Amino acid sequence: MKLLMFILLFGLIASTQATEIEIEYKSWISGSDRQHVETWLKHGVKATERSLGILQQYTLPFIIEPSLFASEPVPWATVQRGKPDAVLLQIKRFTSSRVLIKDWTLYHEIAHLYHPLLDHSDFWLAEGLATYLQNVIMLENDIFNVAEFRTRLISGLSRGAKNTRMNKGALKTVSEQMWSLNAQQRVYWSGVAFFIEAEIALLDTGNKNTIRALISSFQQCCKGSVISGDRNSGRLFIASLDKLSKTTIFSNLYANYKQRKDFPDLSKAQIYSLQPLR
Asked: Each residue of 71-103: pLDDT tens digit?
């Protein structure tokens, strides 16, 4: 039997507009576990909107699949595109909200809702953005500190470089075959490197925009103008970021990245130069 409950969150980011969260449980879950899940989801939405701005959809459905034998708090999750977009999360039963809040998965999936569905060849762009933003969100909301932020980026980029040696070819081609090639580390972290380079380029040119701010602006003004899943969705998304930043930083990097066969070489100094905090 499906359980459905509605929770209204008020006062997010100094706004009087409520974000309505719908929680659907796919199987039985105890009252105590429901409280932990609700606390976690409230916190995740609030933290994400604090960093990225109010999500521009009236309701935010979450579909929760409890699992008794999972090996981690949130073993699997995905975004389900629709009207409205929803988030499916598998969770380990009997996990406290304190543990769930420290897990990166929820922030990653909500961050996906701030961009349209991109074509398979641009999965590196979508997954890289969500991965970069999940770390920004967790840092800005004191889930971890700057040292941990840097460590996570450096470690992830190292995994991406290692995986690239096993998955050769143009990034856009590898992205199309990501699951069959087991190339997630190359795809995700090449995308992270893209947004790190863009972030640094914006800083170097004195541009006051950040990736976080541009994504916030994009989903408020332009997300609806890009057709989700269209073969040109990635190019149009990048064009919007160029327009919003009044630069050609994104299109120049995009033209290079989608064809590149190597993994980007970013130094620790470049990682340390990032300034995601407000």
From this structure: 999 999 999 999 999 999 999 999 999 999 999
Write the CA distances from 115 to 81, 126, 187, 211, 227, integer angstroms.
11, 8, 17, 12, 11
Q: Which residues are CB-neighbours of 129 under 8 A, at least 6 positions away?
A: 111, 115, 191, 195, 211, 215
CB atoms within 10 A of CB 71: 7
What order do you get walking across the sheet with 19-25 strand by strand?
A: 3-9, 19-25, 59-67, 86-92, 76-80
pLDDT exceeds 50 at position 7: no
Nearest CA among 263, 116, 242 for reference residue 191: 263
Domain map (residue ranges) of the chain: 3-112, 120-272
Instruction: Find the helix packing angle between 123-140 and 184-204, rounded to 10°.
Output: 70
Inform me whether the pLDDT recorded for 145 exceeds 60.
Answer: yes
Q: Which of 199, 40, 34 minimizes the C-alpha distance to 110?
A: 40
Q: Computed from CA positions of residues 132, 136, 142, 145, in that sequence, does the dihedral angle turn out positive or negative?
A: positive
Tell me the one-letter amino acid at 157.
L
- Nearest residue to 113 via CA among 39, 48, 37, 178: 48
Look at the domain 3-112 and name its fold: Zincin-like (3.30.2010)
Write the pLDDT tens digit of every residue in 15-37: 435 468 999 999 999 999 999 99
Yes or no: say if 75 and 90 are a contact pair by the CB < 8 Å rule.
Answer: yes
Burial class of residue 56, CB neighbours in 10 A (0-12, 13-18, 19+):
middle
**Residue (of 106, 104, 115, 92) closest to 44 by Cα position:** 106
